[in-house]
Amino acid sequence: MKKLNEEVLSRRTFAIISHPDAGKTTLTEKLLLFGGAIRDAGTVKAKKTGKFATSDWMEIEKQRGISVTSSVMQFDYDGFRVNILDTPGHQDFSEDTYRTLTAVDSAVMIIDSAKGIEEQTLKLFKVCRMRGIPIFTFINKLDRQGKSPLELLAELEEVMGIESYPMNWPIGMGKEFLGIYDRFHNRVEQFRVEEDERFISLTEDGEIAGDHKLKENSLYDQMLEEIMLLNEAGNEFSEERINNGELTPVFFGSALTNFGVQTFLEAYLKFAPEPQPRNSTSGPVDPLSEDFSGFVFKIQANMNPAHRDRIAFLRICSGSFERGMSVTLSRTGKPIKLAQSTQFMADDRSTVDEAVAGDIIGLYDPGVYQIGDTIVSEKELFHYEKLPQFTPELFVRVTAKNVMKQKHFHKGIQQLVQEGAIQLFKTVKTDEYLLGAVGQLQFEVFEHRMKNEYNVEVIMERVGSKIARWIENDEINDNLSSSRSLLVKDRFDKKAFLFENEFALRWFQDKNPEVKLYNPMDMQ
Length: 524
Ligand code: GDP
Description:
Elements: H1 4-9, E1 11-17, H2 24-34, H3 43-49, H4 59-64, E2 72-77, E3 80-85, H5 94-100, E4 106-112, H6 119-131, E5 135-140, H7 149-160, E6 163-166, E7 168-171, E8 179-182, E9 187-190, H8 195-198, E10 199-201, H9 218-233, H10 239-243, E11 247-252, H11 261-271, E12 293-301, E13 310-318, E14 320-322, E15 325-329, E16 334-338, E17 341-345, E18 348-351, E19 354-356, E20 360-364, E21 374-376, E22 394-400, H12 406-419, E23 423-427, E24 433-437, H13 440-454, E25 458-462, E26 467-471, E27 485-490, E28 495-499, H14 502-511, E29 517-518
Parallel strand pairs: 1-3, 1-4, 4-5, 5-11, 6-11
Antiparallel strand pairs: 2-3, 7-8, 8-9, 9-10, 12-13, 12-21, 13-20, 14-19, 15-16, 15-21, 17-18, 17-20, 22-24, 22-25, 23-24, 23-27, 26-28, 26-29, 27-28
Bound molecules: guanosine-5'-diphosphate.
Guanosine-5'-diphosphate binds at residues 18, 20-26, 89, 140-141, 143-144, 254-256.
């Protein structure tokens, strides 16, 4: 094995953020093909459409054609080891995505050139911005007629408020897409041209030397004019500003036709940050430190129905992991031996023996981990920063259809709640189970998984509550509970009120000023 330093510095760990249908699956697949991680085009795609045999562990993904769980893909390219963290596209699962974004060092944002910036992309962009994550932009589907490239850059600036630096520039688009002018490599890459003739090197002035049929096309002249405009009035390239998340390098291309993807990958690897230090209760932790540490950002049960296991996804933040090593779980102070671990490539899991800062490993979880847990190899315990928590806005009362199935029902609820997709509450007076979520689809996934993985049919009834507020001081008169202000306990036994609406919340606060309420999201 190379020296730890070299290993860590070769890692590039990112997530792709986009609105559904912008081309995330297609781009991921092309990247994996370059890295030799998959042999056939269609592997990732097939996973999504459900034709891929080994991926049918998540029935609901097949039925809905949406990706509801994050997975991790790894490949080597040009001396780099790349980790791509997949994120669910559907907005009901944005909580999962937000947590995944805590585990990356950069993000790739895909924009459909015809649609421009879409809602979900904007939301995820804002999270990256807030966290200072460097963003690389891939404007996709240039083989189709879309918005003009200048219009798209203006949108980035106006809607997102981020400055951009186009690394390349399209020559025409749609039926008249001729290729890209690559400012970074100072060459033109032609669309649908055989490999030996695809690239044309440019002179120092950035022009094609001598005669070339491309020069006869008015789209080429138009592109040159636009490039001149960019050179004069556009933003300057700055690696520092890219790293601070202030400037996004922009790449144009077409994932489906595999055009501009390799160029993108190579430039991305050159400029994307290596594993970054992460804040902890003992200050920022250097990824190059010899001491192993990491945090759990996701827990998933039963990825493979053949094994009834749970996997805790750990981002390694410092040092290196070795199979069988002994570590401490900071929350409990208890030692754990990391005997079984797993690495991910789409759904083919293989065992990992060694991994370093920047990598993601899956740990078999017999029920000891919680989302946000820190694991350290040192004697000194510390905790990484808390992960973003969402306040649920939808609530259902849940019971088992068959009372004989209580045991399975409780087990299923406990495990699925620990994954973090739904939150569990118990009414203080009547001991009923309530589930809270950010999106309706999370309940549907819950119901489906209870049935398929725990063999329990559940009954879910919607309750009117929409707002959850925790109570600062747990000493509370239970009689303040009513249908409009329902007193509940969360799974850590912290008390909270569920209110029907803003009006009920204000009314309650007016009547009971001594009760101090808070929203955990305001404290992040
Ligand atoms: P995701 O929902 O973001 O994962 O998007 P997909 O990768 O599944 O792509 C959505 C649709 O757009 C699919 O029908 C793709 O074939 C299509 N698509 C993706 N990239 C391109 C592209 O470069 N050009 C065109 N014309 N279609 C594309």
